[in-house]
Amino acid sequence: MKVDRKRVMGYLYDISSNTRDIESLFKKHSVEEILKEKHLLKSIKYSLIEISEAMSLVLQHILAKQYAVPAKGYIDTIKKASEVGIVSQKLSDTLKPFFDFRNSLVHRYCIIDDKKLLENCITKYKEFFTFIEEIEKLPGTN
User: pTM of the full predicted structure?
Assistant: First the structure.
């Protein structure tokens, strides 16, 4: 079966849009300012959830349509995507904490260290753009 290019591009647009929102906040505010302004922190967290979900949906779709590989949940999706070569192992390792974060936040598994989350995000959010680039290079998505 074929990958639905329009569907994938819609998800990639969502990832890009949310990543640019995060980038804009980091350019305007320090970690300390974001921690003090809870609405900014909540905005980043929600954007990260949307990014993780969109990445997972892209990967699940490609895994199913191009590889006939089922994936159970967010963590399994990124793991299997690297195993079949949709994304590099390095990118998978970088993105996995954001998938973990999404599960922790949505299901309230544990308390999130907001400062650690922001520091991780500041140093790694550009990898969301790398994800987009890697997906756009795949046959059937370009």
Answer: 0.90
